[in-house]
Design a protein that fits this description.
The complex is a heterodimer of chains A (114) and B (112). By secondary structure, chain A is mostly beta strands. In chain A, the strands form two sheets. In chain A, strands 2, 4, 5, 6, 9, 10 and 11 form a seven-stranded mixed sheet that branches. In chain A, strands 1-3-8-7 form a four-stranded antiparallel sheet, with no helix packed on it. The termini of chain A are far apart. Chain B has no helices and eleven strands. In chain B, strands 2, 4, 5, 9, 10 and 11 form a six-stranded mixed sheet that branches. In chain B, strands 1-3-8-7-6 form a five-stranded antiparallel sheet, with no helix packed on it. Chain B is globular. Classes of the chains: A mainly beta (114), B mainly beta (112). At the A-B interface, strand 4, strand 5 and strand 10 of A face strand 4, strand 5, strand 9 and strand 10 of B.
Chain lengths: 114, 112
């Protein structure tokens, strides 16, 4: 169990509006990740965090920003939502970088941009 | 070329058969390898991980890793209808903040 909650679980918004998705973990895991998943595709990394205030870009970071002011919370912001950002967003965490450390996923947020 | 490739699906097997799911990866620096199962509309859940060459068994599941061939597979023995899902292969680079690269997934259907 990842101990991860995501909010909101579903959101419909309009093009051009800012949107913030929240990921909250009950563990004290250092690493947290945001992915997006589009139909028929695996997960693509948007941004990740390796500690409080320590974040970096993933492979599809354009149009997204993140913040991590507390260990337990990792926020993903779409500065100005576009229809191409309609997707399912998953947050994941991991305790560390040992070979046996895995990533566990939250329940996901389904975002629709009209 | 995509960094992580999975055999294209969908894959259909009869109940009780062995399902074989394959994955190849391009980054030789990859250290650990994961198989996730994802039911429709749900989040990925971990089935197995492997990081040493050879086989690793857990119940009906066996993961196989061949680093020389850059190949990882998942065998599901005695397949059940409840195994019907999309299976995602992930390759993790622990030297790069543990970032994982995922394949597009293979959809498995087990027919009663």
């Amino acid at each position: 169990d990842a101990g991860i909650t995501q909010s909101p679980r579903h959101k419909v918004t309009e093009t051009g509006t800012p949107v913030t998705l929240r990921c909250h973990q009950t563990e004290n895991h250092r690493y947290m990740y945001w992915y997006r998943q589009d139909p028929g595709h695996g997960l693509r990394l948007i941004h990740y965090s390796y500690g409080v205030k320590d974040t970096d870009k993933g492979e599809v970071s354009d149009g997204y920003s993140v913040s991590r002011s507390k260990t337990e919370d990792f926020l993903l912001t779409l500065e100005s939502a576009t229809s191409s950002q309609t997707s399912v967003y998953f947050c994941a965490n991991s305790p560390g970088l040992a070979l046996t450390d895995t990533q566990y996923f939250g329940p996901g947020t389904r975002l629709t941009v009209l | 070329q995509k960094e992580v490739e999975q055999n294209s699906g969908p894959l259909s097997v009869p109940e009780g058969a062995i399902a074989s799911l394959n994955c190849t990866y391009s980054d030789r620096g990859s250290q650990s390898f994961f198989w996730y199962r994802q039911y429709s509309g749900k989040s990925p859940e971990l089935i197995m991980f492997i990081y040493s060459n050879g086989d690793k068994e857990d119940g009906r599941f066996t993961a196989q890793l061949n680093k020389a061939s850059q190949y990882v597979s998942l065998l599901i023995r005695d397949s059940q209808p409840s195994d019907s899902a999309t299976y995602l292969c992930a390759v993790r680079d622990v030297s790069n903040a543990g970032k994982s690269t995922f394949g597009d997934g293979t959809t498995l259907t087990v027919k009663p």
